[in-house]
Design goal:
By secondary structure, this protein is mainly alpha-helical. The protein is built from 2 helices and no strands.
Length: about 50
């Protein structure tokens, strides 16, 4: 069953998956925000929970 579910989830999705944590997602978001600041570019973030 896990293989079937994992096959349907995007690589970026970490919820309820082995070896993935909320911390990984927060670090990725922080890197994106820091790069946006460094490059002086606009950044729009949208969180969707369904």
């Amino acid at each position: 069953m896990k293989d079937s579910i994992n096959a349907q989830l995007r690589e970026q999705q970490a919820g309820f998956r082995n070896d993935r944590s909320c911390t990984d997602q927060i670090v990725t978001l922080r890197i994106i925000v820091e790069q946006s600041i460094e490059w002086n570019s606009s950044l729009y973030i949208n969180f969707i929970d369904y």
